[in-house]
Amino acid sequence: MTNNRLFGALRMLPVYGLFLIIVYPLFYMVFNSLRTTREIMMQPSGLWSSSGPQWSNYAEAFVIGKVSVYFANSAFVTISSLVITLAVVTLAAYSLGKWKPPGHSVLFVGFLATLMITGEMTTIPIFLMLRDLDLLNSHPGLILAYVGGGIGMAIYLIRNFVLSLPKELDEAARIDGAGYMRVFWSIDLPLIVPVLAVVAIMSFVGVWSEFFWALITITDDKLKTLPLGLLNFQSQYNTNYGVLLAGLTIVTLPSLLVYLFFSRYFIEGMTAGAVKG
Prior knowledge:
Order of helices and strands: HHHHHHHHHHHHHH
Low-confidence stretches: 273-277
Number of strands: 0
Distance between the termini: 38 Å
Structural class: mainly alpha
CATH superfamily: MetI-like
Shape: globular
Helix content: over 70%
Number of helices: 14
Radius of gyration: 23 Å
Strand content: under 5%
CATH architecture: Orthogonal Bundle
Largest sheet: none
Number of domains: 1
Mean pLDDT: 84
CATH class: Mainly Alpha
């Protein structure tokens, strides 16, 4: 028994090592965001401040560094993109998996085909489309680009999950007089919450940290999102490491919090997708 426990502990050593490699930079960033630049320069590997936590770093980042403006822009763009994406892909994937309208196979193959096309191939056409629609340098244009870029994978995941749902529940509801939308809203939608959580996390992290489309479409400083705004922030605070790390922490924490909040649904969705196909 002792040998088995020892073998099990040794087998987990690579996992613990990988965990430390991933987590330590996050702890380093958070703790050093509460230190002065002098303390960081004198003791780069230290995680404590001899003068106490420097909460003023966050205040300076939010107010003087305009992180509050960039944060509000990112929150609006990300939440809007997430809501529109979930609404569109849920109805589209459900109809392809349950209702199967004429030509549904062709439509599904078309959505799958978008996964084979790299972003570099669609950059110029989408940019020209946004220009012709007069949506450059605007949040609606940025949201449209984000929504269009995340539909293919989301429909693939949700449609496969919908196909695994038991048909008996739908048939029982139909016998009781429920219409198609009633069955979708009351019966099937609660069952696909796990896979919706997977799509929500993937979409949130992708949009929140996206930089390229924000760079080529947004020029007004008041409309910039966090990843783009941090370019100006970094040039302004390239020698004030405490404030700079505070800004990076502000960018990172929302993604971590969203994952922690949806982690149970995320794991359920990934497991169900792996088992049911």
